[in-house]
Amino acid sequence: MSTASAVGAKAIIALSESGLTARMVSRFRPAQPVIAMSPKDYVVRQLELVFGCFPARIEHFTNVSDVMKVVRAYVLKNKLQRKGQGGCGSRDSLWSRWRNQYHNGRGYII
């Protein structure tokens, strides 16, 4: 979870149907809260007992764009991020960080 600290993340969001992802992240005892999102009520109840987890129930997700909309709405509602501020976990920002750090622009990794 040193990556979350290195990028200055305020929280770690784990999407999971079974809760396993959130439990695995929680084992590392990150400094940031783990927001565990699941469409299943019993999983949300179970995750209330996991260290550092703040479970939230979401509707069943079928594709990535729907999930990103739900996550953004949750993050803005709970003031984990301001509107217009880039998110560390978004695909585009992670790609640009990787490209700037490891890729020299010539098609191979330095």
Strand order in the sheet with the most strands: 1-2-3
- From the helix content, strand content and strand pairing, which structural class follows? alpha/beta
Q: How many separate domains?
A: 1
Q: Which range best describes the helical content: under 10%, 10-25%, 25-40%, 40-55%, 55-70% or over 70%?
A: 40-55%
Query: Percent of residues in beta strands?
Result: 5-15%
Q: For this structure, what is the CATH homologous superfamily?
A: Pyruvate kinase, C-terminal domain
**Which radius of gyration do the C-alpha atoms yield?**
15 Å
Average pLDDT works out at 76
Report, as a whole number of angstroms, the end-to-end distance.
24 Å
Judging by the overall fold, what is the CATH architecture?
3-Layer(aba) Sandwich
CATH class category: Alpha Beta
Number of helices: 5
What form results from the Cα inertia axes?
A: globular
N-to-C SSE series?
A: HEHEHEHH
Low-confidence runs of at least 5 consecutive residues: 90-99, 101-110
How would a textbook summarize the main sheet?
3 strands, parallel
Q: How many DSSP E strands?
A: 3
CATH topology: Pyruvate Kinase, Chain: A, domain 1
